[in-house]
Write a structure and sequence with these properties.
The protein is mainly α.
């Protein structure tokens, strides 16, 4: 390997290590703040990925205390407001006669996702509707991805590029507590997208939320794009636990 390439490789590795250390420090500071708010010990901190006090108990705080906990993050109040809005939403199923509305939303998710990523939308003629219960949902999505899969994977970097390292760190710190609140990563991304809301003309997660409100979800498999309509309620689906 030429010396110049070797030095470049080492330099990039050092940058990654420094970035991770900076991320870990921010996360530890935020972890201590939240644990103090929860009256939890801070002398021996668990790994954040295993800190279930944060993941679950934070949502049991009084409103004022919760607002103080979110005030430490960039765009924290906007994030909390969006989380509350989504949590208060009760999905209601559409009639089969309104399937065309769902397919139109599916197309918008496809177009808006591609717009953010500066890609061409998926050109697939076979758009379809699938209905089923939780077991059918698990079967279908074991071989399918969200339509927003590429955007989901890029969202943290988009947030850093458009905003700041602090916003990037916020994405990773809040992802797990938000998932414990919703049990749905679509909704986690919908909440965290609020940090870059308005920067783009496209709003892919807003369109995803429109499907959530009618008990449906967009997917992509080998046969093309589809909308899965849940025929059970959220209360009938498995709950996560620690």
């Amino acid at each position: 390997m030429p010396l110049g390439h070797f030095r470049e490789k080492v330099s990039k590795k050092i940058q990654v290590i420094r970035k991770q250390k900076k991320l870990n420090k921010l996360h530890r500071d935020w972890q201590i703040t939240w644990r103090k708010a929860l009256n939890k010990p801070i002398e021996s901190l668990p790994e954040i990925s295993c800190d279930f006090d944060l993941h679950f108990d934070i949502w049991g705080l009084e409103e004022r205390e919760l607002e103080e906990c979110f005030a430490i993050f960039p765009h924290g109040q906007k994030i909390l407001q969006k989380a509350r809005e989504i949590k208060a939403t009760l999905p209601k199923s559409l009639n089969p006669s309104e399937d065309k509305t769902l397919l139109a939303i599916l197309e918008q998710i496809n177009i808006h996702t591609a717009g953010v990523l500066k890609q061409d939308p998926l050109r697939l003629d076979n758009y379809r509707i699938i209905r089923g219960d939780w077991d059918e949902y698990m079967r279908i999505f074991s071989n399918a991805d969200p339509v927003t899969i590429d955007l989901d994977d890029s969202l943290a970097q988009i947030i850093e590029n458009q905003l700041s390292f602090g916003a990037y760190a916020t994405y990773f710190f809040l992802s797990e507590p938000l998932y414990r609140l919703f049990n749905d990563y679509r909704l986690v991304n919908n909440v965290l997208w609020v940090m870059v809301e308005g920067i783009y003309d496209e709003e892919p997660y807003k369109q995803e939320f429109e499907l959530f409100k009618v008990n449906a979800q967009a997917g992509l498999d080998n046969e093309g794009l589809f909308v899965f309509i849940h025929q059970d309620s959220i209360d009938q689906r498995p709950k996560i636990s620690n």
